């Protein structure tokens, strides 16, 4: 029986992260069915994810967004994150937030690389959460990061 | 069968965005019925939208507001946004937030243009969300904006 | 049949706004019955309003508060506003927030005037929300303010 | 029939405010039964209060906490306050928040005095909320404070 | 009959706090059964804890996380804390938040020490909350801290 995985993304983002996440997941397993749902902006993601969970039956969902550089954008990202948090608590399902802030990268090229790499590594996390929780437990407290390099453990 | 679309707006805003949104939607389709609900301020919008959804049967709602320039106004906008987020999660219906900050424009004339253009482009989004989700998916990750120009993709 | 209107206020505020709101409403209509509930501070207002709605049957409620000047007070006001937002969403009833920040006025005399004028104008809004929503709709987007002067429309 | 009053406090605080609140309440009335619940920190107070209300049957609850001086502590206090707000809205019962910020006082001696005085005055508020709401209404808008001196009305 | 205790931790953290918490609890009592659940990041903790409570039957849960140094990380920690607060209120169960901010320590070695010590002391709190609430009550208002030294009472 296949498990449904939701992928919610936006037209606001400057990189198509969803395609990378979908490809990564499909390369790792054929036990899932992916349902994609594109909305205009970041603040439309929480209810989109909740609908993927409650109306489409997704077991886990990824929320892919790209906050802009302005203060206003940071507030939007915060509101979207609070909504994703609440959506998880209302459904008892994980929503993996994959937000890439425009100002994390020094230029468009790095932004494209970062967004795709982070989407890929979080898609791997989704796989482990569904099929191999022991793998995550073995890596607990090891300073793992998605996108840029891992920082490692405090005593490294 | 017509689909009900809610439009909530305020007497606080300095531009009548609702009329533009209503005109845009009516020009795009005759399969919807629009229900308008005007309240005093931005913070009255969340429950107004929830009432449009739950008491009037709206499938999707637009929340049109215009935060002022002061710090106090920014906090109000944040609270209103949190309320709109929560209203969506409680109803599993989208509420498209169309907020135009007074200080986004350099003068009254630009503010009027910006508010109307953003309302128009978000009304188009409402149309696509209801009738053509594939259109949005094809434009995922393309850096679309409502009001000012699109920023385009990171690799443009 | 009379409609019940709730008025929640505080001993913390430096002006008795409730009496003004009650007088304004009673002058406009005899179709309402007002229930007043005084609590110590601003953060006691949300549950007070929810009790007025759910235990006393109020159709709409006014929450009258006066945040102090300190940073701490601003945070309290934000928390109270979030609570009022949530109370509305849990009950599908409007709560009109009438907060007057102590530092909006240059001295005690202006503060007294501002608080009473804002309470009066918001009481009028309550009347229109209950009995004449068309009046509000006709004034949508006109830059109305409560207390200080209206700012008018962007193209004025 | 006795009314149950909950008192939640912390081992984090530097003053035993609960004993003062309990003594004050017991001196004012013998119609209540107090249930005390001590938790480690401020952020444990909201669910503690909710349990006092829902599992112990308390009609009203006091939440006694003492945020530290650091930015991190201010954020904790904000989160705890938001939780107390939500707990009230979920139960339709008042929770009187008695927070004393460590940096409100100039030294340990004043902090001890302030915390005890504020706990005492808020315990009096609890009494009036339970048994004499008219007393609070008569003092509406009079600029009352708990701990430091009342500021009085704007026109004083 | 054993009581189930949940331990939720992350691969993001730079120290394995969960092992310390588990060891501490097992040394104090054999009346509990610990269920560990490792997720990628801090913002995955709230729903993880809620699942431990509602799906695994945990009576109390520890949420172990380590916010990074950047502003963005502080916002994440705030969102995670709000989620943990809400999860507690939705379940009426305590979740003991054990967050160690990377910038609380001067270097990796101190960070490792601090994280382990705080996890240990909070595990002790979990024990007292489950089996000896009187012990906590006796220590109310004594300025206890987890990790660094206790600050003591205001009048010390």
UniProtKB/TrEMBL annotation, chains A, B, C, D, E:
Q: Any idea of its EC number?
A: 2.5.1.9
Q: Cite the annotated pathway.
A: Cofactor biosynthesis; riboflavin biosynthesis; riboflavin from 2-hydroxy-3-oxobutyl phosphate and 5-amino-6-(D-ribitylamino)uracil: step 2/2
Q: Which reaction does it catalyse?
A: 2 6,7-dimethyl-8-(1-D-ribityl)lumazine + H(+) = 5-amino-6-(D-ribitylamino)uracil + riboflavin
Does the keyword field hold Transferase? yes
At the top level, the lineage of the source is Archaea
Q: Which InterPro entries does the record cross-reference, listed alphabetically?
A: LS/RS (IPR002180), LS/RS_sf (IPR036467), Ribfl_synth_arc (IPR006399)
Q: Which CDD domains does the UniProt record give? A: Riboflavin_synthase_archaeal
UniProtKB keywords = Riboflavin biosynthesis, Transferase
GO-annotated biological processes: riboflavin biosynthetic process
Query: Enzyme group, top EC level?
Result: transferase
Q: Which GO terms describe its cellular component?
A: riboflavin synthase complex
A GO MF label: riboflavin synthase activity
Q: Does the keyword Transferase apply?
A: yes
Please report which protein family the annotation says this sequence is part of: Belongs to the DMRL synthase family.
Q: What is this protein called?
A: Riboflavin synthase
């Amino acid at each position: 029986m296949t498990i449904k995985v939701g992928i919610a993304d936006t037209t606001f983002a400057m990189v198509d992260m969803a395609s990378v996440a979908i490809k990564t997941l499909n390369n790792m397993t054929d036990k899932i069915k992916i349902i994609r749902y594109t909305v205009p902006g970041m603040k439309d993601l929480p209810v989109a994810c909740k609908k993927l969970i409650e109306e489409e039956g997704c077991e886990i969902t990824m929320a892919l967004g790209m906050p802009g550089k302005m203060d206003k954008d940071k507030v939007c990202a915060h509101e979207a994150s609070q909504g994703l948090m609440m959506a998880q608590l209302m459904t008892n399902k994980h929503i993996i937030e994959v937000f890439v802030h425009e100002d994390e990268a020094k230029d468009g090229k790095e932004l494209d690389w970062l967004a795709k790499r982070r989407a890929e590594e979080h898609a791997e996390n989704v796989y482990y959460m569904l099929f191999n929780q022991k793998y995550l437990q073995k890596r607990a407290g090891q300073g793992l990061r998605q996108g840029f390099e891992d920082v490692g453990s405090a005593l490294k």
